[in-house]
Specification:
alpha/beta, Rossmann fold, six-stranded parallel sheet, 14 helices, 13 strands, CoA-transferase_III, CoA-Trfase_III_dom_1_sf, CoA-Trfase_III_dom3_sf
């Protein structure tokens, strides 16, 4: 089990919505104490979108195992109390626009005067410097500006609107990565540090292969073997209108596939094009259309050829891979939940009610 890996690490979390809360929830499942500082209205995610028992689903899904303190930072004395909590903190996280924490008196330089060993992480859209830094922004903006959205196009060349906030999640992972590296550095040097995560920059780091290939060839869609151009690496439709992924890039996997379908004559067609003018491609499409989704799932379990189903979200819970690992599970209340880390205990904590742990403020005042 991995829950205690960050035991004793205290994180003061000023983040809202998704990127910051997802990052701190991952730290919470590793054992860190996360104290979420909310306004008297609470994290806006509490009140946004679909709700369960009056609380936003997005909030419930990304704030498990944390403590919540609700405070009006403009109220006299509140700042000193929060700074008192930060005195004993290892990490401070925030996701406001650049300049907001400074106005509140909670920016890194202010905090550092009281706690030189603190690791301070700001999660932003465009960084904390330059003309873009002050602009409002969301996941779709980061996807677009980084060049990643242009990689997701339909057959007409129109970018596809993702139904998952990919950039927000990658920004979360980058924040965790930087915080953990900074904590390790503090152990080695005794010094804290400041870190600003630009989600747009994080997404741009994914474009390294694409930029190098574009410079050499002018091809804008990255590695040709992976972008839907070749026979052995693609998405194919089944008899019942579902989809299967085949990723038999290595020769041994392609040979396994060809043997299993009794088409050894396809051996040399592995890297041929996905075009209607290619007779093997036409035959391969017909082959996948000849069996049901479930039949191909069983085929992929029996034949080692890098074949797996395109699952819908409602299928994850009972699909053998996730069922056996227990990673997608139900809470005691019967709600679906996904563990942040393989090996962590199911139900590592509920999302706190607003101000549920304000007693921490009372104890701070007494000190």
């Amino acid at each position: 089990m991995i829950e205690g890996m960050l035991e004793g690490i205290r994180v003061i979390d000023f983040t809202n919505y998704l990127p910051g809360p997802f990052a701190s929830q991952r730290l919470a499942e590793l054992g860190a104490e996360i104290i979420k500082i909310e306004s008297v209205q609470g994290d806006p995610a509490r009140h946004t979108g679909l709700k369960r028992d009056g609380t936003g689903i997005v909030y419930l899904a990304n704030n498990r195992g944390k403590k919540s303190i609700s405070v009006d930072l403009k109220k006299e004395g509140s700042l000193d109390v929060i700074l008192g909590l930060i005195d004993s903190a290892d990490v401070v996280m925030e996701s406001y626009r650049p300049g907001v924490m400074e106005k509140l008196g909670l920016d890194y330089e202010s905090v550092k005067k009281r706690n030189e060993r603190v690791v301070y992480c700001s999660i932003t859209g465009y960084g904390d410097k330059g003309e873009w830094s002050s602009l409002g922004s969301h996941d779709l903006n980061y996807m677009a500006l980084s060049g990643v959205l242009a990689q997701l196009k339909d057959k007409t060349g129109r970018p596809i609107h993702p139904s998952i906030t990919i950039a927000d999640y990658f920004g979360s992972f980058a924040a965790c990565e930087r915080i953990l590296a900074a904590l390790l550095s503090k152990i080695r040097t005794g010094k804290g540090s400041y870190h600003c995560i630009s989600i747009t920059d994080v997404m741009a780091t994914m474009m390294g292969n694409h930029l190098a290939i574009y410079e050499e060839t002018g091809e804008p869609y990255g590695i040709s073997q992976l972008n839907g151009q070749i026979l052995c690496y693609g998405i194919y439709e089944t008899m019942d209108g579902r989809f299967i992924t085949l990723a038999a890039l290595e020769e041994k996997f392609w040979i396994n596939f060809c043997k299993a379908i009794d088409r050894p004559d396809w051996k040399n067609a592995q890297f041929s094009c996905q075009k209607e003018s290619n007779p093997v491609y036409r035959d391969l499409n017909e082959l996948f259309l000849s069996k049901s989704f479930q039949e191909w799932i069983e085929f992929g379990r029996q034949v080692d050829c890098c074949l797996s189903p395109v699952l819908e979200v409602g299928e994850l819970e009972n699909f053998p891979y996730f069922r056996d690992k227990g990673m997608v599970h139900r809470t005691e209340e019967g709600h679906l939940e996904v563990s942040m880390h393989d090996g962590s205990v199911k139900g590592t904590g509920k999302s706190p009610s607003l101000g549920e742990h304000n007693s921490l403020l009372d104890s701070q005042v007494r000190q």
